[in-house]
Amino acid sequence: MARHEFYAGMSPGVKPVRKPLYVQAPYPQFNEEYIEWIDLLESVVAARKSYTMIELGAGTGRWAVRAASALRQHNPKLPFRLIAVEAEPLHFEWMRLHFADNGIDPARHTLIRAAVTGGAASRPFLIGSPQGTERPNEWFGQALADWAGRIVDGDAGEYGGSPVRAHENGWRSIDPPVVTLSQILVEVTRVDLVHIDIQGAEHEVLASAMQALNSKVRRILVGTHSREIDEKVQLLLDRHGWECAMAYPCGEISETPWGPVKFGDGVQYRINPRLDTRNAAPTRSPSVDPVP
Fold first, then answer.
1. Distances from the Cα of 5 to the Cαs of 12, 40, 218, in angstroms?
2. Are 268 and 224 in contact (CB under 8 A)?
């Protein structure tokens, strides 16, 4: 479930009722997120003993919550841990609500308000565009950027508890805390899926953490935001032996097994052959009927 207030233009899908409500939902549409669904659901099915997911650039934590919801249906006795990282302060607070709305106690998981970088240095985190885009339910493209231009006003208001800086080219930014993927991976032994959607920092973040990724992570889903990043991520993961399950470049209409799909963001779904569990015996709870 998602609050319609999180997304501009969305109205409530159902009216509140006192008795339990059952809603029949179709499969996801054949769009660029279809690959993300496949990756996520395959990671859930392949999980053994426990399930751990890291979502970088989590927004409201929708993919982490989807993973937990899928896991509850497929194997509800399997313990799970969610690690979700988001720098936009209002989206981060919404993530707490989104977890709670879906029966997930945020206190039992790891929610980190920070921007993910390849190193310790922070950069301006854009929260407003020259066109005036700043409402958090209209825009989910906030990002670190070193091209925002000279700061012309270092005290341009407040956003989510952080002071706002105005740049000469019309952008507005805040200075968020930062964290590296390597720092996050120190806290875990094994990760079933790392989902990355960080608006242009994907290659630097991956490159800075490859040793830990190779030894701890089974699957990676990377959303890419330029053709240059497509190529850099592909070369990096190829060099480290990650199997390419699916890859489609950004900004193109690509032919997929389900027909042509227009990809705004590119997507790379990679599997770590060192930790692959696809051929292992399933551990489905005997009390759960298979989902057709």
1. 9, 25, 35
2. yes
Q: What are the tens digits of pLDDT across the range 149-167?
A: 788 888 888 888 888 888 9
Burial class (CB in 10 A: 0-12, 13-18, 19+), 2: middle
Domain covering 28-120+177-271 assigned CATH 3.50.50.60 in the classification: no
Strands (E), the chain: 51-56, 80-86, 110-113, 115-117, 125-128, 143-144, 151-153, 158-159, 162-163, 165-167, 172-174, 178-180, 193-196, 219-224, 243-248, 252-256, 259-263, 266-271
pTM of the model: 0.87
Q: With contact defined as beta carbons under 8 Å apart, do 233 and 203 qualify?
A: yes
Element at 204 (helix H, strand E) = helix 202-207
Delimit the domains of the chain by residue range. Answer: 28-120+177-271, 125-174
Q: How far is CA 166 from the centre of its chain?
A: 28
